[in-house]
Amino acid sequence: MSEMSAAHVLDKHAGIARELIAFAVGKQEFCIDVMSVREIRGWTPATVLPHSQSFVRGVINLRGAVLPIMDLAVRLGFPPTEAMGRHVIIVVQVGSQLVGLLVDAVSDILTVTDADMLPPPDVASDMAKRFVCGLLAIDGRMISILSVDNILPERDDGEAQ
Amino acid sequence: MDSLRQIFFQECEEQLAELESGLLEIQSGSSDDPEIVNAVFRAVHSIKGGAGAFALEDLVRFAHVFETVLDEVRKGRLTTSDNVIETLLRSADVLSDLVRVARDGGTVDEARIRTCSEELAALSGVPAAGETEEADEGFDDIGFTPVTVALPVFDDLEMSAEPDGGTEYTIIFKPYPSLYSNANEPVVLLRELSRLGEVTATCDTSAVPNLEEIDPEGSYLSWTIQLRTEQAEDEIRSIFEFVDGDCELTINDGSGLEESAAPVDDEIEALLARVRGEVEEAPAAETATGDNADAGSGSFGSPDSLMVQPETCDAEKAVQQPEPIAPAPQPAASNAVSSGDTEKRGSGQAEASKAAAPAKNDNKSAVTEAAQTIRVDLDRVDRLMNLVGELVINQAMLSQRLSEAGLSRSSEFATGLDEFEQLTRDIQEGVMAIRAQPVKSVFQRMPRLVREVAAATNKKVRLVTEGESTEVDKTVIERLADPLTHMIRNAIDHGLEKPEVRVANGKREEGLVRLSATHRSGRIVIDIADDGAGINRPRVRTIAEEKGLIQPNAQLTDEEVDNLIFLPGFSTASTISDISGRGVGMDVVKRSIQALGGRVSISSRPGEGSTFTLSLPLTLAVLYGMVVTVAEQTLVVPLTSIIETLKPKPGDVHGFGGDARVISLRNNFIPLVDVGRELGFRSEAADPGDGVALLVESDGGGHSALLVDAIQGQRQVVIKSLEANYGRVPGIAAATILGDGRVALILDVDAVVAGARVGNLGQEAVLAMAG
Description:
The complex is a heterodimer of chains A (about 160) and B (about 775). Chain A has four helices and eleven strands. Chain A has about 160 residues and is an alpha+beta fold. Chain A has a six-stranded mixed sheet. A five-stranded mixed sheet of chain A has the order 3-6-7-5-4. Chain A is globular. Residues about 1-15 and about 155-160 of chain A have low confidence and may be disordered. Helix content of chain B is about 45%, strand content about 20%. Chain B has a six-stranded mixed sheet with strand order 14-18-19-17-16-15. Chain B has a five-stranded mixed sheet with strand order 6-8-9-11-10. A five-stranded mixed sheet of chain B has the order 20-12-13-22-21. The chains are: A alpha+beta (about 160), B alpha+beta (about 775). Chains A and B meet through strand 4, strand 5, strand 7 and helix 4 of A and helix 17, strand 21 and strand 22 of B.
């Protein structure tokens, strides 16, 4: 599935430059398409939701809207983030919903063409299969391109229930 | 076209409501104001007219028969006996069905329509069939030219003309623009006139301005009609009935008129000449003055032009205008503006406006002083509502920050903030008032229901409604209709006795169902009362026992027995009737009321009747809640579900089975729900001694105690959806944002209590009932 979607992405955007926001989670680097990012804000304590999955940190007030926060570290299989002031929430739009992704730090904005993108390796990691739709090799760094759609909490809720 | 259709159907709804309330008023005999009959007639006529435009033939045909009868009533030829009114009310129901079918599709009960048409036809003395000619007449020959016309255009003229005898009337007919904007058409009126007798019509085109000055929606033509007829003047007037107020109409039987009319014309001519002369100097003001000249000739001065008047006419001229000036139907607002302007401009103009004022009042057509309304997209109101919600939160945040900053309450900031708070609250109330609607819109559906249920059960029922103007949020109103319908059905079907039983018990044969609404302490309270037999408690008990809802020997108070009818799966009707009762009765009612944040209670006296009382919040956008702390989380518990709060003493709490606990309260044992554990905030049971218990009422009227750590206070909170960006959360109804800017969750009391229940529901119900 991840391969298919990666191939799809590559075909569709072949040769067109696009911008990605790169950020750190744990010790690894990830990026998402800048077009899906609505804003980036500092960490504020979230209100815990009962019976939520471990990667759901809770909800915060985003100018009057109730915004769910996903701990991307837990989602990707790392230990939970001990969130502090320096942590960052990337607010992304998925479909009609807004979701906040808790990450360690935003590093930079990358402009890449699809020629730069490599398909994800075929490893057993659940994370790689579900969330990573491509890889970038830049200055010796490896940056995984995340597919925001699969981070959606409700879809996971649906599976869980 | 679709939007026009939509408007038509919206208006139909309004007309139908007016029709029904008018008929009921006539029935009650409380007023013999002829205006009511007129209003009823107009309602049906307007529906017919609109339906004709949309080629809804069934509707037109029926409305026409209906209208014919109403016309007889209006002319006093048919007295409104009970039978007649009954037929008219039934016809109103049929009409409403036809409108609904025309709008939503579906089928109509042809037989019912036929019966009703026949009854109506019998009343009016006209056969029902072949009555549609008037309606069938198209509007295709409208293309007339604004020149003098000697009406041979209307070919049916000669047939009906009666050259000999009769009176010669001179009719001066000057439409206002509003006549056209209400989709009336002078040619149709003239054609109607021609049915009465011999007609010679002259069109006065002198008021038509030059093309570049013409207002496409203006009215510049007037007609002088010579009519020789044997009919009375009233007949002529009745033709103009529906443009009453939208035109100036003079009817003169004799030659007097021509003399009086001529000078007016001269004056108008003179005035027009003046006006045209001034055009050169003040081209910008032309339209306004031009319109005023029209007003002088009996046409319409639009509100705009009236406002401009003081700037463009000098005082002398304004005074000089011929007296019948006037009377442009205009909104009161513009009236105020124009006179306000005038006063500023000195006495000369003040007089001018005074001179005009009585003329306005004289014109009986002048605007009915109805409050003006606009239709607004609900989305816009909701958006405004959301923004105001933000404002409220923001204001709360500001004031919290301010107090954290340690500023004294008397500082300028604090007083400024107080004013801000006051303003915010006013705005919030203002916006909520936009969404508020009188409960009338749902109450007025009930008379029909009562008629139908009464007919189906062979009972005689009188429905009395009170407090129809009580206002409540639109959403609440929409969601009230079903529960109310159900409860009224129940009241008639189960509550009221059969007429013979009633008589035997010394009651009036006719049962009484009273539906009333009042505001009480920030909530709307709706009573549905009947004067029937009251709840048959032994029977309710037996059924509850049979269905296993209670233990056979359970000790229950009368109130508790009454509340059994709200349990799921309870139905007292031994045979399922068409009207009510398939066992999905009162529990559904109760659940839908609770979903609105409301409560239902019953009081019943054997032999005297039952009263169901609904208490509902006025709005769904805000909620009064108790802010509590549970495992370091802040939660809001809706105040409506809290009965009381108590501090449990260690000895009051007992283990009950494995994990459950109960708390003893006034010799009852009530399940104790540990909210923190229930929501998964902590795994260990909290020590009741450290916390506070909230006694709540939940589904089925059962009581439970919610154990929380502490109470922070009571507050009005703005309800925020969790589902917009996330999804449903078990045990949580919604979210809100508190003064510190953080999200707090609003507890779904029923879900939490239900979640805490273990074992079978029946047993639980007993336990709950015991509380």
